[in-house]
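To the wet lab folks,

You asked to see what we're planning to order before we commit. Fair enough. Below is the target structure as tokens, and below that is the sequence we designed to fit it. If anything looks off to you, flag it before the synthesis order goes out.
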């Protein structure tokens, strides 16, 4: 016996369709790196409020947080964002690529290498304020991302 019609659709597809019907999505481009994301207008507005009218993708938001932590002095989010945007602008001018995916991969590789080359100092301004610093990229021999 075969079932046809909406009863045979997996639950995930039904829920996804309901979410799409309930929410309106818009495409927005990161003011820093140029990456385009699909987000709800409410989320876009929250991000723009946080970054004084600028849209910043999730990758650049993490880079801005990292810029604040790495700074030798306490800097504002606005200053960290300006630093990151200057970094992206310089990076794009040094290595123009025609493919956006290649550019993103290259930028992430450069950011990862940069974070590995300069470990965070224990006298970070955020630690002085009593905030906990997130762990850096560390791989142990006992843990793996692949299941055994």
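Sequence we intend to order:
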């Amino acid at each position: 016996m075969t079932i046809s019609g909406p009863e045979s659709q997996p639950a995930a597809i039904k829920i996804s369709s309901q979410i799409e019907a309930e929410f309106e999505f818009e495409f927005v481009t990161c003011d820093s790196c140029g990456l385009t994301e699909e987000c709800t207008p409410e989320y876009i507005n929250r991000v723009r409020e946080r970054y004084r009218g600028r849209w910043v993708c999730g990758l650049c938001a993490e880079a801005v947080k990292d810029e604040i932590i790495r700074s030798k002095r306490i800097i504002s989010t606005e200053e960290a964002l300006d630093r990151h945007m200057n970094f992206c602008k310089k990076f794009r001018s040094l290595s123009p690529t025609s493919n956006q995916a290649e550019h993103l991969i290259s930028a992430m590789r450069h950011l990862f290498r940069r974070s590995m080359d300069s470990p965070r100092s224990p006298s970070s301004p955020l630690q002085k304020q009593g905030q906990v610093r997130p762990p850096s990229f560390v791989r142990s021999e006992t843990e793996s991302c692949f299941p055994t």
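Structural context that might help your review: Residues 22-115 form one domain. Strands lie at 26-29, 36-39.

Thanks,
Computational group
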